[in-house]
Write a structure and sequence with these properties.
By secondary structure, chain A is α+β, with helices and mostly antiparallel strands. Helices cover 40% and strands 21% of the residues of chain A. The longest helix of chain A is centred in the C-terminal third of the chain and has 14 residues, at 110-123. Chain A binds a DNA duplex through helix 2 and helix 4. Chains A, B: Zn(2+) binds at residues 98, 101, 138, 141.
Amino acid sequence: MLKRYDLLNAVEAQGVRLTAQRRALIETIQEAKSHLDAASLLELARKRDPKIDRATVYRTLELLKRLGMIDELDLMHLNGEKHYYEVKTQKDHLHLACFNCGEIEEFTSPTFERLKREIADKNEFDIKVMRLEVGGLCKRCAARKPVLQ
Amino acid sequence: MLKRYDLLNAVEAQGVRLTAQRRALIETIQEAKSHLDAASLLELARKRDPKIDRATVYRTLELLKRLGMIDELDLMHLNGEKHYYEVKTQKDHLHLACFNCGEIEEFTSPTFERLKREIADKNEFDIKVMRLEVGGLCKRCAARKPVLQ
DNA sequence: ATCTAGTTGCGACTCATTCGCAATAGACAT
DNA sequence: ATGTCTATTGCGAATGAGTCGCAACTAGAT
């Protein structure tokens, strides 16, 4: 498991007002076992604090994104246009999404790190976010379903 | 300029019915100078054939995606949640999106190709689509605006 | 020229996300 | 502890991209 930042402390350290809703949302994201979309995040966070509104979820996600504490993923839009969120890890990583079974695999590699440095150097580009998503067939599905139309 | 496939011929070769609307849409995508979203594509294609509907645009994009002839991009959602489309090029490439000025730079590199092979090999993943997007500040904006909050 | 299955236009719909505004509540000063 | 002030919240309505069902149309085969 890749090391993740401690959101709650990090947010507090930024001098951001900590409301009950934000606390519930941040703890939920932090402890999530899988990538959450806004609706699932809302549902889970309501177990901690039942009085949270949809709008607050979006506003909090916006805040965390702005602070660079979470990443927003599309995961190849396997299930509609919603976004998914994850706590930023120390190392960038990419996501492999299986079009057949929907499984998401994560992947890190020195080559990825190297590519990142290359982009920054050759283009003199100041990288804030890097989102690499791959769609295709995972090992099992490729074996089972050799041809995709 | 990266070499692009000739869409119209390629589509015909697939035995797909060529309607006036598809022709107009495909020619428009092929000749586009920049990345088009569905709405701009519709607007431009109507100059060739004024009788095209929004739904047909989406259905045609879906078709071309399925045939593997175009790629769908998010371009870091710089301007809302819409998607952008481009004709597939011979080589995969990535997009650098400037959060400040909105400019999109393209980038190819042997390291990117290598990373792709690595993913396919190490994970035994059958890659269909690869979408690598980078957000940050381009050379000029980084110089002009050294600190982003 | 005819036939027919694939394609289209239309309008209504869905779904994710955003907004305006009045009510509320952190957190700092007292 | 209490009051104050401003950021944050909930609510409900709005937006915007994309999708759907269905009747009308048409490309291309015969």
